Amino acid sequence: MRVRRSAYSKKEKKKLKKRKYKKSLADNRRFVSHPLFGEIPMIEKTTIGFNGKKNKTWGYDPDYKPKLPKNAVAGNIREQMFCHMCHTPKYFYVDIERECVQCNQLFVFSAKEQKYWYETLKFNFHSSAIRCVSCRRKQRSDKSANG
Ligand SMILES: [Zn+2]
Predict the structure, then answer these.
(1) Mean pLDDT per 10-residue run, the chain (147 residues)?
(2) 139 C-alpha to center of ligand 1: Å?
(3) Where would you tag: which of 12, 71, 115, 147 has the fewest CB atoms within 10 A of its CB?
(4) Cα(119) to centroid of ligand 1, in Å?
(5) What pairs with residue 38 in β-bridges?
(6) pTM for the structure as a whole
């Protein structure tokens, strides 16, 4: 009669393996705290440099889905052009109230508009609306009148 060497059954072993995996994942996890998006999970990425050396970097998890505040529009960070060093991806957009640099009127840079700017037009995060809609329209028509 063979004696079972392991104290664990197959099922238990599987469970243990799973737990181990989970733990190692947790050990490798990093988060970045953001006032709007909460704890953003970071994922480790390996890039290969010019010299063929492997570099490990951390990138924002594109599948992270923070809870959307009321009236927010979900962002798709895969469509956004931004520098990981200077900016945080826009996981969602909320209306932003601004003062127009031209007429000093308050205007709303809406969540929908922001999504259009950063995901459809692929504007860099450095660009942002600084003029109200009517001043923008005026500026555009002035430009076309001049050129
Ligand atoms: Zn204005």
Answers:
(1) 62 64 60 94 86 88 95 96 91 97 96 97 94 92 72
(2) 10
(3) 147
(4) 24
(5) 34
(6) 0.72
55: nearest Cα among 63, 46, 68, 64? 46
Residue 139 amino acid letter: Q
How many Å lie between the centroid of ligand 1 and the Cα of residue 129? 11
C-alpha span between 92 and 18 (Å, rounded): 33
Give the distance (Å) from ligand 1 centre to CA of residue 146: 20
Task: Output the pLDDT for position 44.
Answer: 87
Tell me, what DSSP letter sits at residue 103? T
**Residue in 73, 147, 53, 86 with CA at minimum distance from that of residue 117:** 73
Tokens of 112: 């929908």
Predicted pLDDT at 48: 86
Q: Domain segments of the chain: what residues?
A: 12-146
Contacts (Cβ under 8 Å, ≥6 apart) of 53? none
Distance CA 54, CA 44 (A): 12
Residue tagged 């601004």 (tokens) = 98
Q: What's the pLDDT score for residue 42?
A: 92
**In Å, what is the CA distance from 145 to each residue of 17, 63, 69, 88, 103?**
70, 45, 42, 38, 21
